[in-house]
Specification:
InterPro entries: M28_fam, Peptidase_M28
Function: Extracellular aminopeptidase that allows assimilation of proteinaceous substrates.
GO molecular function, one term: aminopeptidase activity
Cofactor: Zn(2+)
Order of helices and strands: HEEHEHHHEEEHHEHEEHEHEH
Protein name: Peptide hydrolase
Radius of gyration: 23 Å
Distance between the termini: 91 Å
CATH topology: Aminopeptidase
Strand content: 15-25%
Largest sheet: 8 strands, mixed
Number of domains: 1
Helix content: 25-40%
Structural class: alpha/beta
Strand order of the largest sheet: 4-5-7-6-8-11-9-10
């Protein structure tokens, strides 16, 4: 009997040991914080770096880390579509901007792996589709660019006479660095403002008969990227695929944060000068001068600060217009305080004018 009891006890200990849960090691990611500065980090360590205002590109699934300049383009010396663009600008609506941003910033968050991030993307996709349907355009479509995580990127394509492509983009996700996956992250400025900026420009662009009849010399795309906050994940995947497919992306304009004006400062359009194409940036300044009432000021945001860096990294010319100088940008991003009441809608409207002008001008340009 004693031997039976002992054996039973031994088996019990053995079974208990067998069902002990294994320690789950955190997933690791390879990131670039600058040329040649590659590190392996956990998701938690990513957010710690962002809290320290250190920008990075997640290159875990990207080809050939490092920047390239394999695709070159030349840009017009002056704007050439002022009559058409100035006829469209009055159609831009602050009411539409506010309405869209109210809904978009009311999601608990738009975190790229959360159900909220998926739901907000579905809502945004529906808005884009509704604009296309209302326009009656036959040369315009919208599709989801899916990723390994829940939130898809969204791509709207306005087919022109050639495959040369002009891209306007903004990121749709948001994050609260205190509680990334579940915390309240309205992301009204970062980057709800950029999202609605290009959405409203897209709507008005589709009221132009030359655009909707396919007369533009180039194809125009509007992108809303997933997972920017985690290291430019959505845009990185999109532009990597475009590079693999041999796509002729001749220009990319990024809109990340267009809604904040620091109290006591003069309203400006910040023009980023690092990790961008100098020729395209010079043309962007011409667009701002032609279609916005605001002056420009040069600024820098650092390596991998936003999705234009993904275009540059893939070899495509990029530029970025920003809400201010980088030093005067919103201090409330990545928190529950990045709310719609901090957004200056007349300021956002100026950026919709810039996007509209940029897309129309380069849509009809020889690139």
């Amino acid at each position: 009997m004693r031997s039976v009891i002992a054996l039973t006890a031994l088996l019990g200990l053995s079974n208990a040991a067998a069902i002990q849960p294994r320690k789950v090691e955190p997933e690791l990611f390879k990131i670039e914080l600058g040329p040649g500065d590659v590190r392996t980090v956990t998701e938690e360590e990513k957010w710690a770096l962002k809290a320290e205002h250190k920008h990075f590109i997640d290159v875990t699934n990207l080809d050939e880390p490092g920047f390239s300049l394999q695709f070159l383009a030349s840009f017009p010396g002056a704007v050439a579509q002022t009559t058409a663009v100035k006829a469209l600008i009055p159609k831009l609506s602050q009411t539409n901007l506010r309405s869209a941003l109210t809904t978009f910033s009311n999601f608990q968050n738009r975190y790229y792996t959360s159900t909220y991030g998926q739901q907000s993307a579905e809502w945004l996709f529906g808005q884009v589709q509704s604009i296309i349907t209302a326009s009656g355009a036959k040369n315009v479509k919208v599709q989801k660019f899916t990723h390994s995580f829940r939130q898809p990127s969204i791509i709207a394509t306005i087919t022109g006479k050639s495959e040369s492509t002009v891209v306007v983009g903004a990121h749709q996700d948001s994050v609260n660095l205190q509680n990334p996956s579940a915390g309240r992250a309205p992301g009204a400025d970062d980057d709800g403002s950029g999202t609605v900026t290009i959405l409203e420009a897209f709507r008005v662009l589709l009221t132009d008969s030359r655009i909707t009849s396919g007369q533009a010399a180039n194809t125009i795309e509007f992108h809303w990227y997933a997972g920017e906050e985690a290291g430019l994940l959505g845009s990185g995947a999109v532009f990597q695929q475009y590079k693999r497919d041999g796509r002729q992306v001749k220009a990319m304009l990024n809109q990340d944060m267009t809604g904040y004006v620091k109290p006591g400062t003069k309203e400006v359009v910040g023009i980023l000068t690092d990790n961008v194409d100098a020729g395209l940036t010079a043309f962007l300044k011409k667009v701002v001068a032609a279609y916005s009432s605001l002056p420009t000021v040069d600024s820098k945001c650092g390596y991998g600060c936003s999705d234009h860096a993904s275009a540059t990294r893939a070899g495509f010319p990029s530029a970025m217009a920003f809400e201010s100088t980088f030093d005067d940008s919103s201090p409330l991003i990545h928190s529950a305080q990045d709310t719609i009441d901090t957004v200056n809608f007349p300021h956002v409207l100026e950026f919709s004018k810039i996007v509209l002008g940029f897309a129309y001008e380069l849509g009809f340009a020889t690139l």
